[in-house]
Amino acid sequence: MGRKRIRDIRNEELIEATVIAVHRRGYSVVTMAEIAREAGASAASINYYFGSKEGLMEATMRHLLNKLKQAMIREYATATTPRERLYAVMNANFDDTLFEVAQCSLWMQFWASAPYSQRLSRLHRINRHRVRSHFLAELRRLLPAEGVETARQALQCYMDGVWLQAAQSDGPLDPTKARLAAHRVVDLVIS
Amino acid sequence: MGRKRIRDIRNEELIEATVIAVHRRGYSVVTMAEIAREAGASAASINYYFGSKEGLMEATMRHLLNKLKQAMIREYATATTPRERLYAVMNANFDDTLFEVAQCSLWMQFWASAPYSQRLSRLHRINRHRVRSHFLAELRRLLPAEGVETARQALQCYMDGVWLQAAQSDGPLDPTKARLAAHRVVDLVIS
DNA sequence: AACTATTTTTTGAATGGCCATTCAAGTTTC
DNA sequence: GAAACTTGAATGGCCATTCAAAAAATAGTT
Fold this sequence. Notes:
homodimer; Arc Repressor Mutant, subunit A; Tetracycline Repressor, domain 2; DNA-binding
């Protein structure tokens, strides 16, 4: 128990450090030593906890995906109509806990390297599929069958595109504004 | 004259090889030796022509941006109305010469690493700005002032998002279909 | 055409540095 | 005292880049 707790604390610290270090230096060039320094630990201890650099990256990805899942649950709890549930998907993706430069940056780096890592691409596929299902379920209730796929693609691509741009931003992001803009896009698409 | 020609031929061969090799192995792990083998040359000769790995990557990026520029010119030549010019932007981005998996993949890798390289981020900024201007110019003629920015963001993010998804695809892409879908999104946004 | 000089191109091998991972030996926690 | 945790230093491999020397193309000369 006490033992478990220490492990969890370290895990979280190291993952936080990974987000920061990868954002600062780039996924492809960041070193274990840099991440370790950011966390106030040693490179060796990261391997003790995560087995390898790839293991750390996978854990970090899981951490972000989990945040997204939590946000989804929160948002869906109060959404009742199809339109509200579309808003909910957007709200979750642009949640205050997720929509910040360092995390968007990391997300994009993962995207870029997912095709070259079994472990990452699996996570990536699962997540994409879940978002897709959510969109489809609501859109089917709002649009004629032949318009559903176009609308879904428009929304999902928009979402991805916003993350992509956010990752390039040099100032801090405004999640509230992002959510509002996303609502307007939803309205546009289902009007 | 003759001298120039050889250099250009090599440049093109090496850039083609770079696209293929980076797509196959990933930007962060591909080695000079792999690119060289793909081109039937040696790693040393790449340095002879491009100075460094980063130089090669920049040249490859320039090559893609140039393709995009050519496509834009081609498409704009026949577009007369604002709506047609919006179509033209989309057509250029999803042109047959550009919209294929290996190139989308490369594009995304550049996106991800642009923030960490002066030379790449400069190219990236210029390109993004150009696309932005094109969209704005046409949208201002079609929409009330307060709707322009939302529409522009929706279109530009959509475009980025499609590229992003295309890069993950395992089958070949269908540029014609992509252009049609993009037209529908344009229609949706300016309706 | 033939031959040479000059420039351009190509490459194998060496260089030097970097970095993930391992490990043995400590330190802390229970 | 045992198990969990931590780390400095060593290991081993990899890779971009350089360099010197060869090969190929080109120009110049007769």
